[in-house]
DNA sequence: CTAGCCATTTTTGAATTCAAATTGGATCGT
DNA sequence: ACGATCCAATTTGAATTCAAAAATGGCTAG
């Protein structure tokens, strides 16, 4: 197994919650689960610690990082900034074909909204946002965006969505597509910022913070 | 030596150019220079690779990453986005005392401009930008900014500055301080974007890209 | 019966060891 | 003499081993 693969596997376990936030990570167990020795696993853990997904405690091993309300706010704020930037750049660089792809995804998303199919709605939603990032043609930006969104994804897609919020989100997405088609970079960046701000308010209000998960439930 | 210390030492060597861009990194040599074994060094290299400072070649070791023109453009663009975001947030959160610090640094910077003391000018310049980032009160943002600026720092501060450009930069900094004192977030973010765009044009025009460093000069 | 202390065990951190891949050079063939 | 191929030596990647730190459990004393 390649180094990057180990990092990817462990990252997925953290993001999927297979290793829950705050849980200790016993190297030995993970090693045999992944069928590797401790050396490559420890390399991966250090990389993930630098990404903010893992917390290293000197001489006491590592834990899955836990997001506080503040962390969540900070991540959303940065995400807002990155998407706004991506929106501006995308309007300068996106091709007609790419706009067409986004329009298709948007149409599909609106259909799923009509069906109240939240899962498929989110799939299209995510595709659209990622397409805008990709259209910015800036790998540094893409990398940071990927890293930031990965950490808030669960919160973003698990928070219950009220009919009121959902309708607003769809409306905002109409504006997003519109600005993109007009290649109105400044307009798009404003809409994206507002869109993310609303999403953040939604998530923060739901109080998703990964606080105090109790070290471990102990069977008595 | 602690893990983070190893990462820091090697990062410094890369950023200072002690290990020049494109140079191969012989693990063995670095190990004895740092007085550690290969295991912790390799952990550090993988972390630095994730940061984009080191390029890992499977089964062929690692090299100090080399920035192309495109990389430089991408990094500056992201930096622009981050500073713009920080500017907006800072205007909401900065204290009067912090504004006062920035004003002092600005005054000192203008004096150094008058003396044509580029080194001291840059010191104040950097302090101001970092103070704005810090005032945003967002550690995620600070971390990304630190990582991005570190990679372009040499280009940013080594590019020769024409009198024309320098005067413009000082003028822009006047506007930056002014917007900050008025707590005009939108205005500040616009000025910062323009400021960074000009800096980027300056650097890109100077053609700083770290291209073709010749594998190694060979004494015949 | 509880609290505090010490020995044991477990787990982490790092050096060493071992295997695999690559590189450079030498030999052989054309 | 030139080129291809094979072998040795170096270097990388990962497992194992060793040492140090922390957690655990038991023991004794109050």
UniProtKB/TrEMBL annotation, chains A, B:
Keywords recorded for this protein, A-Z: DNA-binding, Transcription, Transcription regulation
Top-rank taxon, per record: Bacteria
Domain HTH gntR-type stretches: 1-67
Signal sequence region: none
SUPFAM superfamilies listed in its UniProt record: GntR ligand-binding domain-like (SSF48008), Winged helix' DNA-binding domain (SSF46785)
A Pfam family hit: FCD
Gene3D superfamilies referenced in this protein's UniProt entry, alphabetically: GntR ligand-binding domain-like, Winged helix-like DNA-binding domain superfamily/Winged helix DNA-binding domain
Entries under InterPro entries matching the protein: GntR_C, TF_FadR/GntR_C, Tscrpt_reg_HTH_GntR, WH-like_DNA-bd_sf, WH_DNA-bd_sf
GO molecular function: DNA binding; DNA-binding transcription factor activity
Name this polypeptide is given: GntR family transcriptional regulator
């Amino acid at each position: 197994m390649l180094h990057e693969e180990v990092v990817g596997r462990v990252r997925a376990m953290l993001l999927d919650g297979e290793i829950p936030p705050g849980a200790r990570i016993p190297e030995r167990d993970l090693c045999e689960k992944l069928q590797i020795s401790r050396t490559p696993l420890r390399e991966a853990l250090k990389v993930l610690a630098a990404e903010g997904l893992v917390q290293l405690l000197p001489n006491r091993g590592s834990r899955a990082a836990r997001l506080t309300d503040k962390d969540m706010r900070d991540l959303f704020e940065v995400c807002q900034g990155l998407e706004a930037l991506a929106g501006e750049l995308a309007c300068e660089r996106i091709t007609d074909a790419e706009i067409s792809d986004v329009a298709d995804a948007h149409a599909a998303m609106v259909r799923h909204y009509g069906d109240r199919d939240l899962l498929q709605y989110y799939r299209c939603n995510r595709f659209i946002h990622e397409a805008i990032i990709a259209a910015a043609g800036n790998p540094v930006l893409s990398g940071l965006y990927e890293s930031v969104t990965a950490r808030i994804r669960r919160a973003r897609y698990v928070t219950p969505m009220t009919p009121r919020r959902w309708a607003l989100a769809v409306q905002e997405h109409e504006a997003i597509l519109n600005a993109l088609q007009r290649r109105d970079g400044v307009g798009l960046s404003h809409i994206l910022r507002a869109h993310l701000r609303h999403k953040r308010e939604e998530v923060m209000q739901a109080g998703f913070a990964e606080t105090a998960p109790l070290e471990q439930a102990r069977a008595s």
